[in-house]
Amino acid sequence: MYVAVKGGERAIDNAHAWLAEERRGDRAVPELTVAQIREQMSLAVNRVMAEGSLYDPDLAALAIKQARGDLIEAIFLIRAYRTTLPRFGGSAPLDTGAMACDRRVSATFKDAPGGQVLGPTFDYTHRLLDFKLAADGEVSAPAEAEARQEATPHIMSFLDREGLIQPEPEGADTPPDLTRSPLELPAERALRLQALTRGDEGFILGMAYSTQRGYARSHAFVAELRIGTVPVEMEIPELGFSVEIGEITVTECETVNQFRGSRTEPPQFTRGYGLVFGMTERKAISMALVDRALRWKELGEDDVGAPAQDEEFVLYHSDNIQATGFLEHIKLPHYVDFQSELELIRKLRREAAAASSASGEAAE
Q1: Is CB count within 10 Å lower at the N or C end of the chain?
Q2: Distance (Å, rounded) from C-alpha 328 to C-alpha 142?
């Protein structure tokens, strides 16, 4: 992120003190704790973890508190802190088929094997303010539902049995890591997915919406959306096998799109894919739609010039931290640059006025 600050240290110190005062707010109101933010603003915490590329609910909640609720600023704090952490190794690929699902729905099969699990969702709520939430204390009874513990088969596996879904080629054992190396184009799919999962949710949502409005000839169905906890395993070289080091909550979305086929491929479905930290289903669905739009070249489709098909446009502009840095630096001092622009405009106006006066005299 590009930030350059020069000026009086006293003024900057006073600005920091004022910021801390504004962050605290009215001292007659109890201060928010990190635990309250973590437990009661979990969707904001999930977004900060996803776009900050660090799974730690406590740190994400702390960043939100420090940033006064500005999620992009909180994401910046998390990314900056992440760079200070030592790296001990890489984990094994997640087995989302073993997910303990809190939520699992399919828009393609009503009687999906494994069942539909609505889980905690806004889908069926009335978008009306609930003023009971303004009251102190508990206002609702705890839910009786529990996460589905047994393995839930993926919908795509049933399409794959009939050869109706395009098989996915094996990727590299160790894909490139976007958090350690700068993005280079053209980017392989593994790198694109990393950029999308940590990209700005609003931007990815806008790109996904554009594909639904006809800007990529890509009409998708949500084959499956699942949210739940999955174990994280890491191979220990001294032991020669993998051990479970913890569990994380993720959201996974797979979409199916029609594909008319080509000279070498029969008509079949293709897929879009999204995987995001936490309960972040809007982001996961958006990611899957944009992922599919970006695959036009490898699938031999036509480039219709849609924004969501432009790899450079999508990947370079989806990073809200990079975008914020270049946007906000223009509010910092640019006195010398502006003075040169000001002098240029004055000179052009003098020349234009002189030319106009000379033209008027010649006409007389």
Answers
A1: C
A2: 44
